[in-house]
Design goal:
Blueprint lengths: L1 E7 H16 L5 H6 L1 E2 L2 E2 L1 H17 L13 E5 L5 E5 L1 H10 L5 E8 L2 E8 L1
Antiparallel strand pairs: 1-7, 2-3, 4-5, 6-7
């Protein structure tokens, strides 16, 4: 199963300017917000990539963001080389494992100009 999503970085910049950290907390957990902080503010491209990654995973699972799966049911971390990885929380992993069998979630995020693109594959 595959999910893809595209997010405008300028949209995330506007959200951040209007709502600050409180706005980010609606879709990012604290550890993700820490990964998105730069010395001079937020890394909006990374935030947009994280949003796109969560949307892409929800599409790959066939449910979208809503009653079955929320933004905070997923978390993104970076490995020692800086590559992003996404996981479902344990309750959602159990829930979706009963509906579909997958052992691994592959994630790719890229940025170009004013967009961030994420692709998720369930294997």
């Amino acid at each position: 199963m595959l999910g893809i999503d595209v997010v405008q970085i300028s949209r995330i910049e506007r959200l951040s300017a209007r709502f600050g950290k409180r706005g980010l907390e609606r879709f990012l957990c604290q550890s993700e917000i820490k990964l998105c902080i730069r010395h001079n503010g937020y890394n909006h491209a990374r935030i947009a990539g994280f949003w796109a990654a969560k949307e892409a995973l929800s599409k790959a699972l066939g449910c979208g963001i809503g009653a079955e799966l929320g933004f905070l049911d997923m978390s993104i971390m970076l490995d020692s080389k800086g590559a992003p990885h996404i996981e479902l929380d344990s309750h959602k992993m159990a829930y979706f494992q009963t509906k579909r069998t997958f052992a691994h979630i592959a994630l790719s995020i890229t940025h170009d100009a004013d967009i961030s693109i994420a692709c998720v594959a369930l294997r």
